[in-house]
Design brief:
This protein is 18% helix and 36% strand. The chain is an alpha+beta fold and 131 residues long. It has one domain. The chain has a 3-stranded antiparallel sheet, covered by helices on one side. Strands 1-7 form a two-stranded antiparallel sheet. A two-stranded antiparallel sheet has the order 4-5. A hairpin with a 2-residue loop joins strand 8 and strand 9. The longest helix is centred in the middle third of the chain and has 7 residues.
Amino acid sequence: MDWQKSTGPCRPYSRSKFATAVFKTGHFGLEHDLIVSSQHGVLLQDPNNGGSDVLYRARYFVETIGGDVRIMRGCRRDTYFHILLDQHEVVFSNGMASASLYLGPIARQRISAPARRKMLPDHLDALRTTH
């Protein structure tokens, strides 16, 4: 397991699909506010899919629920803590099931080359490059 921290300016909703989203305390049983990228995966049971677990992007809840799940429009800087495991896993964040860092194409594009070298073992060369 590897923890990564990144800090940067918040991205307004109207200008970026990576805007910072907040799930307010109490919503979905959260113990505290949960602040994530709007691309972050949140695991919930889908009643329309036989109750099976489905990973939804935080952006989905902003667009469909609103209110207690919203974009942090007044945010000036955000800090994310990424959890990189040997494989993509579900972890609990403030009491909510969510995804560990998934190094798919979008994430790889947003991680600098020096950070990728620091994060990834030598045998994962395929993940070191962006396409």
